[in-house]
Write a structure and sequence with these properties.
Initiates complex N-linked carbohydrate formation. Essential for the conversion of high-mannose to hybrid and complex N-glycans. The protein is of the alpha/beta class and 296 residues long. It contains eight helices and six strands; from the N terminus they run ααβαβαβαβαββαα.
Amino acid sequence: MRGNKFCCDLRYLLIMAAVAFIYIQMRLFATQSQYADRLAAAIEAENHCTSQTRLLIDQISQQQGRVMALEEQMKRQDQECRQLRTLVQDLESKGIKKLIGDVQMPVAAVVVMACNRADYLERTIKSILKYQTPVASKYPVFISQDGSNPDVRKLALSYDQLTYMQHLDFEPVHTERPGELIAYYKIARHYKWALDQLFHKHNFSRVIILEDDMEIAADFFDYFEAGATLLDRDKSIMAISSWNDNGQRQFVQDPYALYRSDFFPGLGWMLSKSTWAELSPKWPKAYPFQLIGMTG
């Protein structure tokens, strides 16, 4: 009887132990599930934080790039201002304002378009001044430099007989077609700037444009003075040019003959202010002489 009671007590204890064990396991499982959820939430929060940190780093990098670009732009502008201040001082020291103010009714301004070839430019200047000196009041001479080549600038400023202009353009060039040379775009910008300066700022009625590698003939200025009358009378004439590809001695029969052509030869040509008023608003980004040829 005692043995049966003992067995019953043992089974009861085993059941109680099993129930307790199951309860403990269930609590452990519930606790583990909570910790697992918290861990997953923590990992997700960490990933989000990492993503936000990377995004912030990218934004900081972009801002740093913009700051560097602005600093570079400020440096270019400071350089441009220093060059312009130096130029104004040089011009004032040479009395250029008085020189221009004393010119009475010039036939045309003469501008030599230059960039970085000081040796060529020096030969051209000497050629011009050789014949321009007796008629200086009729043909004031300008040198328009594109860029900041120091040799060209120093050479131009060494002559009291001419006025130096400097075209500084720091805007990036975007070509319209792949493989194009940006030089054609810079040349177009330089020509437009120089002609705007001479026609609008200095208010010349005519401008003679020369390249920096040309030498003029003895009758150069007489020719353009006669051509100026034709340019004023006949509005169908776009420009007066002193260049002829066939103008060599062996091909010329009459040195006094004057020909009219529908082909624009360039290279030493005179343009009127009224014609420039038509061309300037539609001046192309590159290859400007194609526009002049079509207009002519």
